[in-house]
Amino acid sequence: MTTEELDTNEKRAFLEWRRNLARLQENEELVLTPFEKNLDIWRQLWRVLERSDLLVMVVDSRNPLFYRCPDLEEIDEHKRTLLLVNKADLLPLSVRRKWADYFKQHDILYLFWSAKAATAVLEGKKLSSQTMEESDTDLDTKIYGREELLVRLQGEAEYIVSQKGTSAVGEKPESSSESALVRPKRVVVGFVGYPNVGKSSTINALVGEKKTGVTSTPGKTKHFQTLIISEELMLCDCPGLVFPSFSSSRHEMVACGVLPIDRMTKHRGAIQVVANRVPRNILEQVYKITLPKPKAYEEASRPPTAAELLMAYCTSRGHVSHAGLPDETRAARQILKDYIDGKIPHFELPPGEIDDETDGEDNSDIEGSSTAAADQSDDDASDEDDEEINRAEPNISHALNDLASFDMHGQMTKGSTKKKKKEASHKHHRKPQRKKDRSWRVGNDGADGSGVIRVFQKPAVNLAASSTSVVG
Fold this sequence. Notes:
InterPro entries: G_CP_dom, GNL1-like, GTP-bd, GTP-bd_ortho_bundle_sf, P-loop_NTPase. Pfam families: MMR_HSR1. Its main location: cytoplasm. Keywords: Cytoplasm, GTP-binding, Hydrolase, Nucleotide-binding. This is CP-type G domain-containing protein. The protein has helices at about 5-25, 40-50, 65, 95-105, 115-120, 130-135, 145-170, 175-180, 200-205, 250-255, 265-275, 280-285, 305-315, 330-340, 355-380, 385-390, 395-425, 465-470, and strands spanning about 55-60, 80-85, 110-115, 145, 185-195, 225-230, 235. The protein is an alpha/beta fold and about 475 residues long. Among the domains are: about 30-125 and about 140-165 and about 185-235, 3-Layer(aba) Sandwich (Rossmann fold); about 250-340, Orthogonal Bundle (Conserved Hypothetical Protein Ylqf, Chain: A, domain 2), CATH 1.10.1580. Strands 4-3-2-1-5-7-6 form a seven-stranded mixed sheet, with helices on both faces. The longest helix has about 35 residues, at about 395-425. The radius of gyration is 39 Å and the shape is globular.
């Protein structure tokens, strides 16, 4: 195939794929998140997939399923995908154990890794996290070091190549000796994933020096590059790609660092994602602020709104815009950067574990407060029906009583004002107005509905009398 034929085939396939996605949005009314629409970036991914024997998908440990693309794992049956869970030092050991159980249950090849910790070891810095020490005993939750990860990647790639060679030998028995000679000298490990998940940092840590540019702004890498580690291993870095998805929103992609923070136009939506994920007390501890408490008629466990969080942050830091209003844009960018960098601790649990633990704790707290309020009502109330009502709705009853008293007070004040107005009208000694006599009006007895007009005519004059009087 020539270069021109390959170029036209790729353009045709890309256009058909885009049209199919557009049909899904129109026919099934699905909302598609923003994804990479540049054909040249996708070509970089295709070249990496063609070259690689082992495909490493780098994901963020705080929400691995958000950054995982299962479709890439089904492209070639002769290639295997390894899930490299980066930034694993930000997870507690118990959370890593749960994710390890989830990956093993779904037959996902995975490794825990921290590019930041590996870079610190190369530079001779001391590690401040305790997770590296806690995971040394368990291989499932172990955070791999640089040398251990290189050995593991090379071993997995060589195993895939050997399996491919044995399958080729099984298909063509007569060329077994030739297939052994045709084996590549180096195995190639390709790195793919979303922007800003740490692919470039991982490559630099594995190579041992800075080979690729690293920045917090996604989209730094524009073209794939190959890096020779040894005579048996070569790495291939792919630019970050945003894959199409129907589950996440644009605000969530901004909060996760997939889309650039400095280019966002609506900051409250992304801040609301942060407020929904991070508990209220952690936000108050990290930023030394006090968030407004929920109202009496609201749930006690509701997350703070984006406006409340931004207002509290701007007040504590003194961020004011030129118009004298709180500078919410500046505050939102700083909070999102802290959220992405890990200054604000947060993580997602595997599916099925979220409702059991986080929601269970919140419900237990709510139930504890409701039972305490119910015990107090038992001492004061004597009627059993009133006790059951107070137990069921301890918080809402106070709000309803306040609203009822407020309504009653409003009605009483309205009635009193009306009475005062009526009494004031009788104080003035005015003569009652006489009713005008309108009995002269003709009634409308017709069935056609038209108005009746009364015509006044002068009495007829006797012509004979008038003529004699004129002659005389």
